[in-house]
Amino acid sequence: MHETSKLDDLIVTTIDSVRGYEQAAEHADAGTHAAFFRSMAEERRAVVAALQAEVTRLGGAPNDFGSLAGTVFRRWEDLRHALGGGEKAIAESVRRGEDYLKEEFDRVLRDERMSPETAAVVRDAYASVQRGYEQAQARLHAEQAA
């Protein structure tokens, strides 16, 4: 039960990440940013699928929805974009989302009650999150330098 609860927390947060990237792709210019955001959404979907498979393996019914907080955050970002936030605001929004997702994975990885099998699934998913975090940070720094 403890493991499935922690995995479900990660699933909900990662679904929020998928939706955030999809939204960023919709608002970004058609160039490389939009392609990057779509690619990251797809990568996050794979993370969700891996986490859901582990919940199922453990005998649970995995979540398949994001959070209310994530929905509110995306609506706020819609408003910022409508008010002229532009590409820089999108990059900053992605960075904040990546920071939060990384914190959630860090928290679960520190949980000593996770079985070695489940911890391995979380570590594999975290590797994807870490790559996305680093890529988002690099894009934000490039935006800030421009």
Provide a brief overview of the structure.
83% of the residues lie in helices and 0% in strands. By secondary structure, the chain is mostly helical. The protein has one domain (2-145): Ferritin, core subunit, four-helix bundle (Ferritin).
Write the layout of secondary structure elements.
Blueprint: H1 2-27, H2 32-57, H3 68-82, H4 86-109, H5 116-145
Helix pairs in contact: 1-2, 1-3, 1-4, 2-5, 3-4, 4-5
Mean pLDDT: 82
How many domains? The number is: 1
Binned strand content: under 5%
Number of beta-strand segments: 0
Please write the string of helix (H) and strand (E) elements: HHHHH
Terminal Cα span = 48 Å
**Which parts are unreliable, with pLDDT below 50 for 5 consecutive residues or more?**
none
Q: Tell me which CATH architecture applies here.
A: Up-down Bundle
CATH domain fold name: Ferritin
Helix coverage percent of residues?
Answer: over 70%
Number of helices: 5
Structural class: mainly alpha
* Rg, nearest Å: 16 Å
CATH H-level name... which superfamily?
Answer: Ferritin, core subunit, four-helix bundle
